[in-house]
Amino acid sequence: MTKLAIALVATLYADARGSWSKLASICREEIVAEGGRRDMLLLTLPAVLYTVQNNLHYVATSHMSAPLFQVLVPVPVPVL
């Protein structure tokens, strides 16, 4: 959420020149433009998987000792 807020503020001042309506039209153009939705969908899957992986790391940390966690985290887990 922090990155989204920073990106919106930067776009507001750099591209939209402080105009909220111009910011809305820029966001609409980038998302709805040709290929915009496809690109967003292509980026959504890795982002969701990364979020799930980070949450699983927190769960694993709370259920095992620190040395065991440090040994097991770099080991790749095959997904069937």
Any overview of this molecule?
The protein has 80 residues and is mostly helical. The protein has 2 domains: 1-33; 35-64. The protein has helices at residues 2-14, 20-32, 36-63, 66-72. The mean pLDDT is 82.
Features:
4 helices, mainly alpha
Quick overview of this protein structure:
The chain contains four helices and no strands. With 80 residues, the chain is mainly alpha-helical.
Name the assembly state. single chain
Q: Which word captures the global form?
A: elongated
Sheet/helix structural class: mainly alpha
Kindly, what is the distance between the CA atoms of the first and last residues, rounded to a whole number of angstroms?
Answer: 32 Å
Total number of strands = 0
How many DSSP H or I helices? 4
- The sequence of SSEs as H and E is HHHH
Largest sheet: none
Counting structural domains, the number is 2
Give unreliable regions as ranges.
none
- Alpha-carbon Rg, integer: 19 Å
Mean pLDDT, as a whole number? 82
Topology overview:
Layout: H1 2-14, H2 20-32, H3 36-63, H4 66-72
